Amino acid sequence: MPYQRIVLAVDLTDESIKVANKAAAMCKAFSGQLVIIHVIESLNYAYGGDVPIDVSDIQEQLQTTAQQRMEVLVDQLDIPVESTIVTQGGIESEIHRVAEENNADLIVVGSHGRHGLALLLGSTANGVLHGAPCDVLAVRVHKSEA
After folding, report:
1. Could you give the angle at the alpha carbon of 75 between the alpha carbons of 123 and 37, nearest 5°?
2. How far apart are CA 94 and CA 77, in angstroms?
3. Residue 115: which residues within 8 A CB-CB, separation 6 or more?
4. CB 16, CB 73: distance < 8 Å
5. DSSP one-letter code for 119
6. Which of 27, 81, 89, 124 is the most buried (most CB within 10 A)?
7. d(C-alpha 95, C-alpha 110), whole Å
């Protein structure tokens, strides 16, 4: 069965366009819909809630910057995007949540593949794969290809 609802998880680095183009091509091929998510890992979450300063201004600036980068990415795609989501929290859990809420058939995520099991997937891609409510496509990216 073709993929009709695709969730693209991006880190908004320069390599994101390669991953986004793969997801866009699949949407075109299957007449699917594309939802793009970027997760800002909460500083409190990243440090186990043990941040001794107020980080709300920093988090707000990260959110604004991510929104701007998301708009640039969407403008580079040659397909309509159903929605974009910039959220905060645990990366894998937020991607899973958005995939479930959107009844996704496929999650597309970039993979740098650097160490351990990450040689195959990458730590984030590996985390997304485990517990995903649907299929996961890990798109291999290299800095030299961006």
Report:
1. 30
2. 23
3. 123
4. yes
5. G
6. 27
7. 13
